[in-house]
Design a protein that fits this description.
The structure holds 2 protein chains of 2 kinds. Chain A is built from 9 helices and 2 strands; from the N terminus they run αααβααβαααα. Chain A is mainly α. Chain A has 2 domains: about 220 residues, no CATH class; about 35 residues. Chain B contains 14 helices and 2 strands; from the N terminus they run H-H-E-H-H-H-H-H-H-H-H-E-H-H-H-H. The chains are: A mainly alpha, B mainly alpha.
Chain lengths: ~280, ~350
Amino acid sequence: MSHPATTISSVKLAWALSWAAFWTGFPFKMIVALLLLAAQIHPWEGAGLIALLALSVPIDIWALGLTARTFFLERMGIEVRGPVGIGLWWQGAVLGVVTLGVAYYAVGATAAVCKKATAATLELVNKVIPIPVAEQITIELLMWAVPTTIVAIMFLLIGLKLFGWRIKRFAVASGQTSSASLQERVREWDDWRVPADSILMLVSFTAVAVLLTVAFWVLLPVTTTHRHPDYPPPPTDAVKKKVKPEQLLKKTDATLAKAEAVLELLEKEKAKEKKKPAGPGK
Amino acid sequence: MMPLLQKVYDFVDERIDLKTLEAKMMKEPIKGGSRWAYVFGSVLLFIFIMQAVTGVLLMFYYIPSADHAYASTQFIIHEVDYGWFILSYHFWGSSAMVVMVFAHMSQVFLWGAYKSPREMIWLVGLALFGIVMAFGFTGYLLPWDQRAYWATTVGVEIMDKTPVVGDFMARFLKGGPTPGQMTLSRFFVIHVMVLPGALMGLAGLHLFLFRSAGPAGPFRGTPEELKAKTDFFFPRQVWKDIVAMAAVFLTISSLALIEPVVLLEEAKPDPGDYHPEPEWYFLFLFQLLRWKIFSGELGQFLGATAIPAAFMLLLAALPFIDRGPERNIFKRPIALLSWTVVMIGILVLTVSAIINREFLD
């Protein structure tokens, strides 16, 4: 009897694992990206990108391991021993780099050729039926983008085919076929994933969620960084000038003493004026 | 479960039969097992709840008057703590809702899930689609800047082309010859009272009908195969729904951070340098109306009213026209071709409108 892993198409197998692993890891990567964005660091360039890529590696290894184990057990009835994620991830990473490198040049060349052909075709069509400019640009975009996408998809299929072939080899080498029914296998897998101390798991999960939420609001700027031209930021001098209570009190006391002295002087002068004898009447 | 939590659970259960409710909610059988394709409905509900939460927070500061709407929105953006983020989340959330409605409708259409006995779910879903679009249309005016004012002017003008009721609808919404205080008041009331009420009622009916008819399940596989793979709503579909909700929440938040709301000038009856256009999800219709064949009275009526109305009527009549039991999209070539043509058409026209905008600017 042939091994269950050899009966499935390589492309389908690689796609099923990669797709599920992508969506499993995606929310975690998004959390990292969101925290970076809240801290005003762009996750698509410089240090932000490096941080995101570095954190994506363990997330991908975990996600790939989880989805591969699930797929092997549920769809193929294979139980895999040992670490699955790391074993598949490095092979996928090497194949991905090679395929992407070749695809980059092939897709670029296809796009260049198709753009030239499209421009020539539309020039001819325009002589017969004039097309509005905006629609012409969109159609042009579609005409060169469609064949370019087809080439990109072909490379994706080649990459998946190669990755699927490696996954099959991995499953045959490290997996053992299970004679249990699908329901039993699913229950076994679910039980395996349920932690022994579910309260501890729930509390830890909630604590991490609270911590991340607090981190997000702490990192997030309180006021907008994209100000409207009519709403300039408050003058920085006023913000920078710190209030020193002792000095302020001393200054106020001095001002009050000065005012008191002036008042006293004025009152004395007024009293003197009152004391002056009245002039001779008419 | 912790003793205290267990006591609370037992207390509530004794009074409202929580166990039965839980069994009904969580143990819904899903033929063929859980799927990522089934997450759109739950995600839509989640987005609506988040829109309601952020909307209420915005209402604490927003003043729906022509004199203060713009200033209060600017106050939210520039003065209120985290106001800019809440407003930007609400703004991007509305776009996410439109995208998800399109995705949900496409999934139902491609899966043939509108067919008997699920015709009523489809019809209520279409009404919900209309409500989501109305939410976007009415909410767009509220910041009262040039973009808001002119998008509404264009939208109401398109509505005006409808025979018999068009004039009444346009006058009712505007409350005067040009958009002003009456327009803002009416749009505000519709946005925060009428539409949420209608959406909650219809979404409840939609869910009730869905639970009554049951999920359609995958379009491939024999009844025996599907039965063998049957799963309950909890935990696998719940997990997929939660992951999808988290992904949507994080995407909307990221968009709010990358591209936060920045208002244009305050609304005025002179567009100045601004080229009026509706929201992005109405751009395809706006671009269609620029075509020569849709110029003139008849052309405008055809493009703005007759074609969209005919399309909506066709969608409503779909379960009654397409009565064949076949649900596999690859065995329904007309359906697949129609969906592809409509999607490419919307994409081409929307991109064309954006390119046109570049030319105009």
